[in-house]
Every structure is written in C-alpha cells, then in structure tokens.
Amino acid sequence: MTLEEQKTEIAVQRFCAAWQGLNAVYEDYARRKEIPYTNLYILDIISKTEGCTQKLICERTLLPRQTVNTIVTTFYKSGWIELRETPEDRRVKTIHLTPSGLVYAGTVIPQIHAAEKEAMKALSEEQQSALLEALRVYCDTFRQEMEK
Prior knowledge:
The chain is mainly α. About 75% of the residues lie in helices and about 5% in strands.
C-alpha cells in the first residue's frame, strides 16, 4: 500500500469513527430519555413534517416498512399520534401529533435541535461551509462509487 493509500485509509477510519461518535451522541440522549433512538428519530420527523406518511418516513430514514409501522403503531397506542385519511387515497394516512404527542415531543425534541444549533454555531462560517461542502462531496462520491 502506498503512502497516499495509507493516508486515505486513515482518513476514512477517522471519518467513520467521527460519524459513529455523532450517532452515539443521539443514541445516548435517547437512552437517557428512555426512548429507542429510532423512535425518537421518527418522532422528530413527524413533529416537523406536514402531511407526514409512513412512506415518507421510510424514504427519509431508510428503515423497513414493518419497522416504521411498528413504531407508528406504538405511538398511536400511546395516544401521541392520530392518523387521517388523505382525500386522494383513503388507504394512505397522514400522521399528526395529538396534544399529548405535542407535549411529549416538546420534552425531548427541542434539546436535540438546540444542541445541534449550538454545535454548528461553535464553528466559524468558513468551517460550517467547508464541513457542509465536504460532506456533500463525500456523500455524492460515495453514492456514485457504491452504485458501480
């Protein structure tokens, strides 16, 4: 392996460790709030998405339909959400937080958003731009390579 390849391998390892570390922060928070991280992630999507559907959640999270359905059913049984038929297709239902769902989401979601904003504010504008652009290029290139 050349020196350049070794440097690239180390950079990949460092990136993956950082990414896993970021995910661990979300997981730890969810654990402290006594909610599975996946449920918390889906609750966040529902709370900020008008006309949210299970299909949309699957597309955004890349989770299997059955997993999303199980979590949505759990939320429904907890009284946190209600399901409404869409006028276009009565088989498709949109997911809406109930008053108790809004209260619960209000106890767990805002801290995440506030922490994300503070973390981003800790970076200079140049660092923010560089981070976001580098991540965009990395993701685009990674996707292209994985599709080969």
